[in-house]
Design brief:
692 residues; elongated; 4-stranded parallel beta sheet; 4% strand; mainly alpha; 31 helices; binds iron/sulfur cluster; disordered N terminus; disordered C terminus
Amino acid sequence: MCVEDGDDRMSDVAFPIVWAIGLLVFGGILAGRVRLLLAARPAARLDRFPARVRRAVVDGLGQRKFLSGEQPAGIMHALIFWGFVVLMLQVVLLFGRTFDAAWNIPGFAADQPLGPPFFIARDALELVVIVGVVYMLYRRLVAHTPRLSGMRRAEQRYRDAPHWEGVLILFFILFIMVGGLLYDAGRLVADDIHGSERDLAPLAAPVAAALGGLSRSAAQSVSEVGWWLHCVTILVFLSLLPLTKHFHILTAIPNVFFAKLPPRAAGRPLAITQVPAAPVAALDPPPQGLVGVASLADVSWKQVLDAFSCTECGRCTAVCPATASGAPLAPRQLILDIRDRLYQHADEQRDGGSEPLISDEVLWSCTTCMACVEACPVGIEHVSTIVDMRRSLVDEGELDPLLQQTLQNYAGQGNSYGKSSRMRARWAKRLDFTIPDARKEPVQYVWFVGDFASFDERVQRASESVARILHDAGVSFGLLYEGERNAGNDVRRIGEEGLFELLVEQNMAALGEARFEAIFTTDPHSLNTLRNEYPEYGLEQPVYHYTELFADLVARGVLSLRTPLTGTRVTYHDPCYLARYNRITEAPRQLIEATGAELVEMPRHGADTFCCGAGGGRIWMTDDPALEERPSEQRIREAQTLGELDYFLVSCPKDLAMYSDAVKVVGADFEVAELTALIERALVAADPVTRS
Ligand code: SF4
Ligand code: SF4
């Protein structure tokens, strides 16, 4: 859109008035939204300012998640965004010049030439935005991309809602661009412009050539129509912005800026572990003065900003294991339900409300796998919100009886099985050596075993393997024996913050009696809270997953896998709490490679792994009768698409339990095994596996 002499094509008085009215309408609606933010509870989100700025630039302005996600939709969104931002900056310039023409505002010189780079950039960006918008319209109107129109049971309301809004906004953007183009092309013809200005307008010039047969006054009219189409559409677009999902144009980058930052993990001395600190943020404690979030009166301003910022792209719902299994939860719908409630019942911010904000069934369906948060391009924190709401349910006793019993077990015995803590290390009695008690003699590593690896008979064999491997390699390690309690990761995500703090206190007391340099654990859930949340309670030593420790031992030649398992074909399931929460994806693969087995990746692997369905306390909850197929069973089917396999490998005790059950339901030719089983084979076995 050209601006240098636009003022002579309009009324010097009418146009500023139109602008002023448009801005007043926009300001009035925006003020209502700002009031919702101001009425919300506080949230501390200004720590580590430079890291926040960096993330806002990379993820927000740089559109990182769009560029690294599904294509070509991601790149098209980024192109529209960048083009739109630059063209809107041009509108600000236009705005200033328009007022300058009427009232001579200092700082905006209406007659200042803009030069060739401006023409080229303007036309190139208009072209980019037009191509992007046409592609997006194609996805909505022709291809009917499922993610854009509601998915499965949990999004029935979204599916039933009219989707005219997204289409309308795309047409607005198209009109803004086409209006600008017509204005420029008409002006080139009406003013008979040739030479460098025309040559440097790669999009307007061909359109001008097409208009070449028009008289000067007709071309002038085309230019003026384009001008008004461009400007009026911008004003209507701006006024509608806070009323639609496209409010995210204004709120998304601030939302990315204010999203919780990943915790800083303690020092990491292992040679092979160069992975960054956890990319996923630890949970906040409950809002100040509250046990949890029960109504709109309890939501924080960040949760309000989350609701404003949802683009309704559906990336979160598309990766959600709960949605995939037919549970009533869809993360997009959850955020939109909060938004609808805010917009329609703002008074509840003052006096609460009688209806629950989100239903219990939805909240208890979450596995806290974090796939939604990871997928969301605008920094929305579904899991923190779900946990905040669960805290309130737990406080009111609104939870599954089995889960209630499990929490009582934690409170009474410090483990989910409700067994005496003296039985915690009973599995170690089957070994032909004694594992030192780290509270009685100094060791290099404390092994934080976790509940499943201690008490579940299916997993105890894997614990024995780990113990044997480390013992034979001469590694100094010990246990806390009856001093160990559940680390509390799942307890916290169930929403029992008080119990979590009690478990932390008990574990810190046991660790305080021990002398050690570092902790390792076979349980990714324990790893997550020990590594990322315990430092807030005073833990200073680094915490590793056993695959990191083993990979380090292999790399240093301490552990020598002498029997290559050539001919053994395996796949590996990345646990959410290892791969997504803590980015530990390379160490398990290095170990598999060291065994000589052939690794075949499932389509969803690494940080994009699919949840087994056990996390966030789901493993202790009764299945929804309407569930179609459990996530673990879907995962086994995913592995079956890889052809013949010998092992489906896991590196999490809960995964071993979940997938051992899932193969019984689905039926599979391969064996579900802990990665340690493969390592032990490579250490001692002589024969490669023979497939039947
Ligand atoms: S954490 Fe996982 S299960 Fe929960 S809403 Fe997000 S994607 Fe769904
Ligand atoms: S929450 Fe994020 S990922 Fe989900 S629909 Fe909204 S913007 Fe997209």
